[in-house]
Write the structure tokens for this entry.
Amino acid sequence: MRRLGLKTGIIFCAVLLALALSTSAALAYFSDYEPAKGKVTYRMGGQVTMDEGIDDKVKNIVITNTGDENDAEYLVRVQAFGPENYTSVTYDGDYWYKGGDGWYYYKYVLAPKNATKGSLTAKVEIKGPSGEALLKDELKKAIAALGDGFKITVVHESSIVKYKQEGGKNVVDAPAGWEFKDYQISDAS
């Protein structure tokens, strides 16, 4: 093997030093950042809560958007589960509608600090096979046969409102999987 001379060694070290310096400059270029100007604070606060009362057999359902005036607006829907063939849901058609998917939809956008209006009530009604009222003893037997199923469970879902342009105006864009109806921007109060 041949030995390198002093001159060749110095040139070799200079080349390595130049490569090292240029690489660090390139790495510094790719790792540097500049903060954006004109920042906008975006907040999607708020929360939707449900009050259904304390009775296991009758639920008067009210949904509330507890957010501040600058928080998000919501669309809400509710579903009630109870003993099969004994659970009935009644609702105010001015504010609610029943979708073909089993959900009850509130017709209006729920703005911050507002609650749903109109009644939405789920209750257990035990009647005879032909819809007749049961006598006291028959009613007790029917309730005993239901056992733990003598409860109504209410589930609600909420989705932050998205708007889209249609015909030159903003309209509500229903979430995927929700039955679409024309949502109203504000309630009729």
